[in-house]
Amino acid sequence: MRKFTLLLVSAFFAMGMVSMMLTNEETIAKTKTKEIMLAHNQPTEHPVHKSLKIFKDRLEKESHGQIKVNIYPNGQLGSEREAIEMTQTNAIQMTKVSAGALESFSPTYSLFNMPYLFESEDNYRHVMKRKNVQDAFFKSTDDQGFLGITYYNAGMRNIYTKDKKIKDNKDLKGLKIRVQPGKTSVDLIKSLGGTPTPMDYGEVYTAMQSGVIDAAENNETSLTTNNHGEVAKNYYYTEHATVPDILIMNKETYDSLTKQ
User: Fold this and answer.
1) How far apart are the C-alpha atoms of 229 and 217, rounded to whole Å?
2) DSSP assignments along 70-107, one per residue
3) CA distance from start to end of the chain
4) CB-based burial of residue 25 (10 Å sphere; 0-12 exposed, 13-18 middle, 19+ buried)?
5) What confidence score (pLDDT) does residue 53 get?
6) Which of 163, 169, 165 lies closest to 238, judged by CA?
7) CB 47 within 8 Å of CB 221
């Protein structure tokens, strides 16, 4: 009888352990994958997209599959402003945008649109590496529902035109020049004598091709990986602004992550 009782207890214990294991497996399965939607407006050939792909691969590997990142390039989910607003509401969890697009969400970011803020690219890198500088920007949108995670060097911004050759600032007079939506960018082009035309980045190619705008201002990759060089034949090195790209994340999603 004792042997039978011991066998019975052992069987129930084993069944309990199996049940606990199954329950734990079910729990792990339920919490195993946290999906993050990450949007940006660059093509897949762009250096930023390639870096985000590395970020995705490393995060998925180092979280042991607990976090999965789905990247939506080429403005698939909308303009930069639309992507920021979706990140605010947690419709998507992350997006990469120009710091200029964040000006209307936090006046702090308008600083980057100030002309000739940095003495050189080396000076820019030196300043941006400082944690207190990063925190001043990244944490300035906490009350807006998102925060900055990191920044990307988006190069120095210059003016490029469809037809007209630019020799000095006087040649900009009267030109319809695409700018990022934001007061600081508009004021800059006005001060140079041009006619600022706020427009989403994804519309620049066709707008220049059709003559809606005469020029735009951005870095060299706009001509190469974004193909603006097919319609813009003149590049004027004003180097008037160094505006970083910012990777932002929904605050609720960020706060839900473990410290690790």
Assistant:
1) 12
2) EEE-TTTT--HHHHHHHHHTTSSSEEEEEGGGGTTT-G
3) 52
4) exposed
5) 97
6) 169
7) yes
Quick one: tokens of 12? 């129930």
Find the angle CA(97)-CA(178)-CA(246) to the nearest 5 degrees: 10
- For 148-155, what is the mean pLDDT? 93
Cβ atoms of 156 and 241 within 8 Å: the answer is: yes
Mean model confidence pLDDT for the chain: 88
Higher pLDDT, 82 or 13: 82
Mean pLDDT over 215-234 rounds to 93
Q: Quick one: which H or E segment has residue 206?
A: helix 204-210
Determine the pLDDT at residue 105. Answer: 95
b/e sequence 123-132, b meaning 16+ C-beta within 10 Å = ebeeebeeee
Encoded amino acid at 154, one letter: A
Residues 6+ positions from 114 with CB-CB distance below 8 Å = 184, 241
Angle (deg, nearest 10), helices 121-128 and 131-138: 80
Is 58 exposed, middle or buried (CB count within 10 Å of its CB: 0-12, 13-18, 19+)?
A: exposed
Cα–Cα dist 127/111, whole Å: 13
User: In the structure, what pLDDT confidence band is assigned to residue 29 with cuts at 50, 70 and 90?
Assistant: very low
Number of residues assigned to the chain: 260
Of the listed ranges 10-19, 73-82, 109-118, the one predicted with least confidence: 10-19
Phi, psi of 77 (to 5 degrees): -100, 10
